[in-house]
Each structure stands twice: as C-alpha cells, then as structure tokens.
Write a structure and sequence with these properties.
190 residues; alpha+beta; Nucleotide Exchange Factor Grpe, Chain A, domain 2; 3 domains; three-stranded antiparallel beta sheet; 61% helix
C-alpha cells in the first residue's frame, strides 16, 4: 500500500498534530497570563508609590500643623497677662505721680512707703516680662510714641521728644502702651 493513502497513518499524524496544537495554545495562554500579571504588578507598584507619596505628604503636613499649634499656644501663654497689665499700668502711673508729689512736699514717711510699693510693683511686672522705656531725648518714633502735642524748643532738634507724660511699656518686646510725649518742632518765622 501506498503511504500516502494509509488512513491509519493519517489518523496518527492528525492525533499528534492535535496534541501539539493545544499545547501551543496553552503556552500562548500562559504567556498572555504572565504578561497580564506583569502589567497588573507594575500598575499596583505605581499605585503603591502614589499612596506612599500621599502618606509622606500627609505626615509632613501633620508635623507642620503640630509645630504651628505649639508655637501659637506658646505665644498665647506668653501674652496671656496683657489685659491684666493694661489694668495695672494706671496704678503704676498714679504711684509715680504720688512719689513726685510726696518728694515736693518733703513727706519722708509717705515717700518711703510709696517708693517701696512702686519698686515692688515694677519688680513684679518685670518678672512677667514687662519693661518700661523712656522716650525723653530720643527721636520721635510713631511705632513707640504717641505725640500729645508739638512745642517749639530751641534746645532740641525738631522731631525730638522733649517731654514725657507717660512712659511706654513693652511685654516681651511687644508694645503694650506707647509713651505719651511732647515733640520739639522748629521755630516758625513770622
């Protein structure tokens, strides 16, 4: 018999071919699955990177928020006594005026007592960060001084503080009350 017309041989070849073909399809399927998995892994890694970046930014923002809140709290505590200070300053002024009046009248006992109270009050305020400042003889500074009036004065440069009605006060380098002053002005020529 001729090999070309042998039906048995044709069946065997067809069987071998069919066995090989699904294997080839299986391999292609596996390769496609691997590619799909690799793409999925790559995509997940990118998403993970984005999530990690968001996390780091959020953590940094939270740290900044904590620092800012602590600073604000410290500032609030530092200046918490400002209202009390404003109420005490007129008392200090009155004591200072009483001292001036007592010295003029030579009332030694009163003057000594008032001086002691004045000194104690000044020391107490200094412990809380209050410092007085004098403007006398200094150039007028509108951020520190409140001009009550201007007066012609030949002995001082124009714009210089020549008289002080009230001292100025600072609380931890923040102005609480400006010094109330009289400022020298140039003589007007008629």
């Amino acid at each position: 018999m001729n090999a070309e017309n042998n039906p048995k041989k044709d069946q065997e070849e067809a069987l071998v071919a069919s066995e090989n073909q699904p294997t080839s399809e299986n391999e292609e399927s596996l390769v496609a699955s691997e590619l799909g998995l690799q793409q999925a892994i790559t995509k997940m890694q990118e998403e993970l990177g984005i999530v990690q970046d968001r996390y780091l930014r959020l953590a940094a923002e939270f740290e900044n928020y904590k620092r800012r809140t602590e600073r604000e709290q410290q500032t609030s505590l530092k200046f918490a006594n400002e209202r009390l200070l404003r109420d005490l300053l007129p008392v200090l002024d009155n004591l200072e005026h009483a001292l001036q009046a007592a010295d003029a009248a030579s009332l030694d006992g009163i003057a000594t007592g008032v001086k002691m109270v004045f000194k104690q009050l000044v020391e107490t305020l200094e412990r809380f960060g209050v410092q007085s400042f004098s403007a006398l003889g200094k150039p007028f500074d509108p951020s520190l001084h409140e001009a009550m009036l201007e007066r012609e004065d030949d002995s001082a440069e124009p714009g210089t503080v020549i008289e002080e009605y009230q001292k100025g006060y600072m609380l931890h380098e923040r102005l609480v009350r400006p010094a109330r002053v009289v400022v020298a002005k140039a003589k007007t020529l008629l």
